[in-house]
Structure formats: C-alpha cells, structure tokens
Specification:
Length: 277
C-alpha cells in the first residue's frame, strides 16, 4: 500500500526541482524602504518649508506696501476734501502719536485730547461693553492693559493715559476719573453716584450675613481693588461695619447706626417720664 501511495504522489520528482522562492525579510525591506522614505520625506519637507517661507516674506512685503498705499490714499483724500489728516486717519483706525507734531506744545495737547476721545469711545462702546464687564468702574492700570491690547503694536505709555484721563471732564466726555482715599485711580461712567452704589451693596448684604471684598467683587463684576474701596466707602458712610478676625475682614450691614434714632427716641421718652414723676 505504501509503495502504491508513493508511486501516486511521485515525490521523487521534487528532489530535482528548484527551491521555492522566499519573500525578502520584512525587517530588511522595511529598513531599506523606511530610510529611503525618510530621506525623500525630509527633502520634500525642506522644499515645502522654503516655499512657505518665501511666500510668507512675499506676503509680508505686500502687506507693508498695502499699508503704505492706504495711508497715502487717506492723506490724499484728506487734502482733496479739506479734512484734517487726523479725522481721516481716525475713521480708518490709524490715529497714532506720529500723526501729530508732538514736538510742539500745541501738537502734544492735540494728541492728548484726541487720545482722550478715543479712550472714552472705547469705554462707552456697547459692542465691547468694557465698563459693563468691569461693573461700571475700571482701574487706570486695567484700562491701560485693555486699551493697549486693542491698539496692537501702536502702544501708549501710562503717562499718556494718565494725561488723557485727566481731560475727560474738560472735553465733556461720558466718563470721569475718580481717586479713592487710598490713592487708587479709576475711570467710571459720568452718571455713577456713590449713593446708588451704597444702596446696591446694602440690599445685597442684607441682615443675616457678613461678606468679604472678594465676594463683592464677584457679585458686582469689580476688580478686587475696586471692591475693597467701594466696601470701605460704604463703611465710611455708615452703611456697613466691619468684623476683623484671623480669617480676614467681613462687612456687615450697620445695625447700630440704623437703630440709633429709635434708641435715642426711647431714651428721650424715658427721661421725660422721669422728669414728670
């Protein structure tokens, strides 16, 4: 039976057949293809980077040229229409110190007045809502940071901001500066009144709890510095009293002052009864 099976399979023919071809080793193939691929990829990326950088520099130069053309067009339009250069530049959002002859006192004054108007507009713009987000009052330091962020690279100095803020009232603008007792300088709406601020604080505090300046800042949208000043202002007016402990300062509604008239009236009534007797 075995002989018959062997004759059927004819396996002796396989001995003289050529060996079966084997595929190349995966590791060797991957290594060869991987290194070559990396080299080609690196070369391609280098060329791509060169192209991108070249295009970027071309775009930058085009942007500079376009900016010069816009400014030249604004100046040309100003001369044709008889308008002041500052007016046209302001409409384009390009007003800067360089547009004023600041070497003279008149030029410096004109620049500060124009800056004052721009800052007032920035604060009063409902679309930005700067003062609303700050609870109606903002420190001069915070204003300097926010306004310069909008200006971009054409920054103003803290001194220029201080001078411009000092012109709000003279120019009849809708904002005013205010100096707290500690010396903190803030800018607020022209219609803002301490009496209204005190009323809002007292209504919020109520009778049953004491609050911190941090809680007031969170409630009214003030910075912590402004909140501390406003709470102390309400304390000075007799609406609040403080509780100082190792945990910090908490402000309470002043029951002593609010009940004092009743106490005095009762004492006077008692004295009158004693005199009658």
């Amino acid at each position: 039976m075995h002989l018959k099976s062997a004759r059927t399979q004819r396996k002796w023919l396989l001995y003289s057949a050529p060996p079966i071809p084997r595929p190349p080793s995966p590791s060797a193939s991957t290594k060869r293809v991987g290194i070559g691929g990396l080299e080609r990829k690196g070369l391609s990326q280098t060329r791509k980077n060169e192209l991108v950088l070249g295009t970027a520099f071309e775009d930058l130069e085009s942007l500079k040229a376009a900016a010069k053309e816009v400014i030249a067009l604004a100046e040309s339009f100003s001369r044709l229409t008889g308008q002041a250069d500052t007016g046209v530049a302001q409409a384009l959002g390009l007003v800067s110190r360089d547009m004023f002859a600041t070497t003279s006192s008149a030029g410096e004054s004109a620049w500060i007045d124009e800056l004052s108007r721009q800052i007032a507009e920035f604060l009063s713009d409902d679309s930005r809502g700067v003062l609303k987000k700050e609870g109606g009052v903002i420190t001069l330091v915070d204003l300097w940071a926010l306004y310069n962020r909008v200006r971009g690279i054409d920054l103003i100095s803290p001194k220029d901001l201080e001078k411009a803020a000092g012109r709000f009232e003279a120019l009849k603008l809708p904002v005013r500066t205010r100096i707290f007792r500690s010396g903190l300088v803030v800018v607020q709406d022209v219609g803002r009144r301490d009496e209204e601020t005190v009323r809002r604080i007292v209504e919020w505090v109520g009778w049953e709890r004491g609050v911190t300046a941090g809680e007031a800042a969170e409630r009214f949208g003030w910075s912590l510095g402004v909140a501390s000043e406003e709470m102390e202002m309400a304390e000075d007016r007799g609406a609040l009293c403080r509780e100082a402990s190792i945990e910090g300062v908490r402000f309470w509604r002043n029951r002593f002052l609010e009940t004092e008239p009743v106490v005095v009236a009762r004492l006077e009534a008692g004295l009158r009864e004693m005199v009658v007797v």
